[in-house]
Amino acid sequence: xxxxxxxxxNCDANAFTELIRLNKQSMYRIAKSYLRNDDDVADAxxxxxxxxxxxxxxxxxxxxxKTWLIKILINKCNDIIKREKRLVSLDTIQEExxxxxxxxxxxxxxxxxxxxxxxxxxCVLRYGECLSVKEISEVLxxxxxxxxxxxxxxxxxxxxxxxxxxxxxxx
Length: 171
Known about the structure:
- By secondary structure, the protein is an all-alpha fold.
- It folds into two domains: 1-87, Rna Polymerase Sigma Factor, Chain: A (Orthogonal Bundle); 101-171, Arc Repressor Mutant, subunit A, CATH 1.10.10.10.
- It has nine helices and no strands.
- It has helices at 2-9, 13-34, 38-55, 65-84, 90-95, 103-113, 117-128, 133-140, 144-168.
- Helix 2 (13-34) packs antiparallel against helix 3 (38-55) and helix 7 crosses helix 9.
- The chain is globular, with a radius of gyration of 17 Å.
- The N and C termini lie far apart (39 Å).
- 28% of the residues are buried.
C-alpha cells in the first residue's frame, strides 16, 4: 500500500482509486458505527475521500495512510452528527433489514451500542478494523494508555451487558 500512496501523491489517479477501493469496507464499517443511515454514511465517505484527495500532499508518512484516512472519516462523521444531531441506535440497525449481517454482528452491534461514543469508537477501530493501539492513538489523538484504558473499560461494560442480555434472553 505504501507504493500506491507514493504514486497517488505523485498525481496518479489510478493509484488513488486503488487505495480507496482497498479501504472502502473499513470506511463503511467505521462510518456506519457513527451514523444512522446509508445516506449519511455515503456522505461522510464521499467527503472523506474528497478531503483525502485534496490533502494527500500533506501526508508525511505513506505507511500511515489508512490511519490518516480513518481520522478524516471520523471527523466527517462527527460533522454530520453535529449538524443533524443524530446518534447510532440499535433500533435503526434492526429496522434496516436489507443488510445481510450475521448473528455475531448483530450481537456485536448490540454490545457496542451500550457504550458511550469514545469507547465505541475505540472498539470499532480495534476489533472491527484491527488497528493497533498505537494506530488508534494516532487516529484519535490520545495517548496509548488512554486507548488501553478505554478498551479495558469497554470490555468490562460489554461483558456485563452480554451477561445481562444472555440471562434475560435477549441474545
